[in-house]
């Protein structure tokens, strides 16, 4: 799994846990829906940390909580 996929999966997991839609996430994160959809649909392969921080703020979690998951713990190095 690559980092972009891990970010996508984590956003979907957090939305599922909270039972919120992508549009609701965009509203509470003060981001355009297209920004989140670009991450989820693979158009944005390298989302900015600020965008992820805004998503975290909307969800009421820290960046540490966002990245503290098995998806990120098991990532292999992308630079060989």
Question: How does this structure look, described?
Answer:
With 80 residues, the protein is mainly alpha-helical. Helix content is 65%, strand content 0%. It has six helices and no strands. The radius of gyration is 12 Å and the shape is globular. 9% of the residues are buried.
Summarize the structure.
The protein is an all-alpha fold. It is built from six helices and no strands.
The overall pLDDT average reads: 93
Largest sheet: none
Secondary-structure element string: HHHHHH
Give the helix tally. Answer: 6
Low-confidence stretches: none
Q: Could you tell me the number of beta strands? A: 0
Task: Quote the distance from N terminus to C terminus.
Answer: 15 Å
Helical residues, percent? 55-70%
Shape: globular
Oligomer: single chain
Query: What class would the helix/strand composition place it in?
Result: mainly alpha
Strand content: under 5%
Radius of gyration: 12 Å
Blueprint of the fold:
Blueprint: H1 3-18, H2 22-29, H3 33-40, H4 49-59, H5 63-67, H6 70-73
Helix pairs in contact: 2-3, 2-4
Main attributes of the structure:
80 residues, mainly alpha
